[in-house]
Request: fold
Amino acid sequence: MENTPKYRFSEPVTTFHGSRLPERATPVGYAALIDALGLKVPMPRTLSAVGPRHKAYQQDGWHIYTPRHAPLASLEGHLTFALKYEGLDLLILKALFQASGPEPIEAMVRGTPTGTYARRSWFLYEWLLGKTLDLPAAEKGTYVLVVDPDLQWTAAAVTSTRHRVKSNLPGTPSFCPMIFRTETLREFTKRNLPARAREVIADLPADVLARTAAFLLLKDSRSSFEIEGEHPPQERIQRWGRAIGEAGRKPIDLDELLRLQRIVIGDDRFVLLGLRNEGGFVGDRDRDSGAPLPDHISARHEDLPSLIEGLVAFDRKAAPDLDAVLAAAVLAFGFIYIHPFADGNGRLHRYLIHHILAERGFNPPGMVFPVSAAILDRINDYRRTLESYSVRLLPFIKWESTDKGNVRVLNETADFYRFFDATPHAEFLYECVARTIDVDLPAEARYLEAYDTFRRSVTEIVDMPDGTVDLLFRFLRQNTGVLSKRGRENEFAKLTDDEITKVEASYRNAFPK
Reply:
């Protein structure tokens, strides 16, 4: 690595950038590169270090390796270690290439022209920065995958003859979050949840299936508003529910997002529709001064067109190659971090989940999984999932307060939203989708079948309209299967004691629990 800068890499430490190591060890890989080059990016969720013992283990956010794993104390050594053991962190890699310049990567390739890590680094430099290095096309070397499929989820590979690599990156330079192959995600993808959903509804009568689908759709729409702390009129809930029911039918682009925003907002007299023309944040304001107290700062409004283009390109090019739930997590959580609109982002974020699942045929035709209801039931886990990145990101965004109590971002931040570790988001979403298939879908189907059994039993006891049967059912449900004194004396005073006894027995038979 001639004529390249010399960087000072960490010696063994017990504390690193405020993080306590399990034992005295030497940070390596991405941690070492961030530290030595002073990169202004969030640390990975898991850091690596080499300890003195000959036993590798993970603890407290650190992966401690053995002395035999120790890389050379150089940019090339730590970069190679990162690619080999830590997977691709595109945000760190782009910042690294910008800080180091082309010389170290050119030196790597010239030193080992057939080396797999040199050629992967070469490809990633040109792919991320859009610049061509002063290197001739590779003539030798076995073709190698850019992303290690044993470490991270990938898309279909595209050959680059210049580098003799196969790019299986699940996105474009405009938007490419990565997901690690955790044991949790491996188990979820093995379950074949779409088949499980079809199995649940296979024997349902057509009318029960239709009513189940209608209820779950309404439930998801209502829950999506409740997550935002809103309780709008029923008409607005139903209107948004109809939009969700059409998810997956139209490709996602800016015009489609704008159309959906108009639907979800309804009354736009006090809301600017369209892409933001100023900063944005999620959080509170100081009660006295009105100054922003952000928990998350959205992408700069100047970067929104290119970031939306990245989302659209991901939906069209990369999402079809990924597992549907993983693709939905990347698209939806990428959108919510960008936060392109002044209002409506949360509901559109959850709409994008339905868009991917429906487009890919993950859910049965005409059926919407009430993912928003599952999120609402796990709202604290949902917030922790969002914070898994936003909390780590916030210290790297420089901002000032505006006269309107908004934020003005002062540094370049677009890459923070293009490249992030979407693993926690994919795990959370899979848990929610699995819950809707394992619990909500069969529970609602059983409920409607039980209700129909109760209704038929009641009409055999006494002749009454469906609306009256439904009112009787609600009285019984509210009083654990017993008709209340009020019901006996008012709404159902015409029922005899014998009829009431039989009706209550019918309820218990239909709903034994």
Q: What stands out?
A: The chain has three domains: 13-167, 183-266+279-441, 462-510. The domain at 183-266+279-441 is CATH 1.10.3290.10 (Fic-like fold). The first helix runs from residue 30 to 37. The radius of gyration is 28 Å.
